[in-house]
Amino acid sequence: MISIVLSLKDKKVVVVGGGAIAERKIKNMLAEEALITVVSPMITEEIQKWKDKKKLTWHQKYFQKRDLEGAFLVIAATDQENVNKQIADQCTPNQLVNVVSYYEQGNVIFPASASKENILVSVCSFGADPKWAKKMCNDTIKRLSEEEIEALSKKHQVRKRMLISSSQTKIPVDPK
């Protein structure tokens, strides 16, 4: 496996399950402006609030294969390991799949992460100790000085200006 930072903006994400773990995953997806559909007979109060605010769609039912159609990312977050496996098995080879009970059944793992300004730190323990991984992320972010953060922020702004400038340069493309 490799680490990757992925934009989910305007991508269809299907979360099967409506409990605490699903809620935690959804919270992160909402921050990324993903188009979230939750499939579950029941959901937590927080997921219900997001639904009421039209931040996600809820299908109050049990999972069916057709729920996966068009999904960029599927998160199998039920409290039943066999159901999570069935969900993963029914995904297409081109779908990203996270299985909360056994990461090996999917092709995506969500590492612990912490961020500050333009810095993102992620640590993955492959399920061995998620609390430790989160602590490592938080400790690393806390160690950064304000000078380091400010210097990186300036570099980020310079890079953005360079990219904007280079995008205005016309490069000939072979029409073949």
UniProtKB/TrEMBL annotation:
It catalyses: precorrin-2 + NAD(+) = sirohydrochlorin + NADH + 2 H(+). Pathway: Porphyrin-containing compound metabolism; siroheme biosynthesis; sirohydrochlorin from precorrin-2: step 1/1. This is precorrin-2 dehydrogenase. Gene3D superfamilies: NAD(P)-binding Rossmann-like Domain. It comes from the Bacteria. Pfam families: NAD_binding_7. It comes from Bacillus carboniphilus. Keywords: NAD, Oxidoreductase, Porphyrin biosynthesis. Its EC number is 1.3.1.76. It is an enzyme of class 1 (oxidoreductase).
